[in-house]
Amino acid sequence: MAQQVKAVVAHAVGEPVRIETITVPDPGPGEAVVKVQACGVCHTDLHYREGGINDEFPFLLGHEAAGIVESVGEGVTDVAPGDFVILNWRAVCGQCRACRRGRPWYCFDTHNAKQRMTLADGTELTPALGIGAFAEKTLVAAGQCTKVDPSASPAAAGLLGCGVMAGIGAAINTGNVGRGDSVAVIGCGGVGDAAIAGARLAGAERIIAVDIDDEKLRTAIRIGATHSVNSRKEDAVERIRELTGGFGADVVIEAVGRPETYEQAFYARDLAGTVVLVGVPTPEMKLELPLLDVFGRGGSLKSSWYGDCLPSRDFPMLIDLYRQGRLDLDAFVTETIALDEVEQAFTRMHEGRVLRSVVQF
Ligand code: APR
Ligand code: ZN
Ligand code: ZN
To answer: Which parts of the sequence belong to the Enoyl reductase (ER) domain (predicted)?
Structure first.
């Protein structure tokens, strides 16, 4: 039987989100209905609301979520009712070239839920990032559910579904940070701080946090940075070189998404170092570099998409590290809020006052 639940819906560009009663259908073949326990508020939710992603309004927002599988459709074998799961953006095909070569994050034949959740008048909702978890229950593809240890706090676990995974993965998967490496992280919001946590997990010796805001730098130190640089007051590239014996960092992670920080990342790496780009620029942004510098410097320039994560490998592993006290996911949960406080959480996020607000059900 289809069910009615409360959810946060964005109806039009710039309009405050509204709480609506939506209909969640029974799971069809390959689908699952998940009782959401927690869902973080991410910049991407705000971008949907601001019309920055696409125009398929109305959107059912929310995508950094963990919960309990309530029911599954035909043919679902990987998860079962009662499982504690973290949701991911895309159920990948497993068959295409990218999947077969072990890079499922580049799969373009994804199979998210076929059925749509609807408003009371039957209007179909577009779930944010194929999830839509600012809702008491949501319909997803079973392939978007990864089972993890149920003793983890749902608020902390859900964060692995997006921004925190993107940051940790930028360090451990894309950047391949190793023991003894020096790492610089430019931009210490939720994603940059998660990159710092990832670098620490990987055994980096020196972790240099760069931001333009002293408060953010204090948080970065709390998360695990060993040095901080305010790039409004000091030249970030020079300072990173100084702190790395004149060489530059082995791995530089850019988590802002602006030309000046891309440029800093490019020059702050050791000649053989790696630049990992996580910050998402806008279409009009450009960066001009002397070709001799591009040619003359070794190393590599990589972009990181969803932390190059494999949910089935990374989610359970990171939850285990969290349970062992080696990864402080709770540090990313600034506040827990109720479903009807998402709009206020957007404001606080915009003002840069929280790492993550998390809706707890
Ligand atoms: N130099 C250094 N830091 C900067 C600069 C700058 N020029 N401009 C902004 N920042 C800092 C901000 O002070 C803030 O701490 O970058 C941080 C950005 O953090 P958030 O806005 O919280 O964004 P976050 O969620 O961490 O995402 C960062 O990664 O995945 C992408 O789309 C995401 O592009 C975004 C980036
Ligand atoms: Zn997100
Ligand atoms: Zn595929």
So the answer is: 14-359
